[in-house]
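Hi V.,

Quick status before I head out on leave. The structure for the redesign project is tokenized and pasted below; the design run finished overnight.
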């Protein structure tokens, strides 16, 4: 069953188009992660937060990516990384046009 991974963390920028340019290589590398299906990037410049919502094929692949991403962020000086893995209710998500 597909698993949704929600990650957020303190981030001071860049945001918007600058973020897109700066993190383009990272975005490409994420598409090559085992079990990866898609990601929606999130950012809130007014509250200095960023993160993403991911869909992975299994809980194991979501957990492995969360561990890898958390280590990468901590290596960049991010102290608090929040990550949660959820089941996806496919029936309801299809009704509300969820990308599943």
């Amino acid at each position: 069953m597909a698993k949704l991974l929600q990650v957020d963390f303190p981030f001071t920028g860049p945001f918007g188009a600058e973020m897109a340019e700066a993190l383009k290589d990272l975005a490409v590398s994420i598409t090559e992660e085992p079990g990866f299906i898609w990601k929606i990037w999130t950012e809130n410049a007014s509250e200095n937060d960023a993160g993403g919502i991911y869909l992975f094929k299994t809980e194991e692949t979501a957990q492995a990516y969360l561990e890898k991403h958390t280590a990468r962020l901590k290596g960049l000086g991010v102290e608090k990384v929040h990550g949660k893995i959820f089941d996806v209710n496919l029936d309801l998500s299809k009704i509300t046009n969820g990308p599943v």
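Above is the designed sequence. The helical segments are 16-22, 24-30, 59-75, 90-95.

G. will cover questions while I'm gone.

Best,
W.
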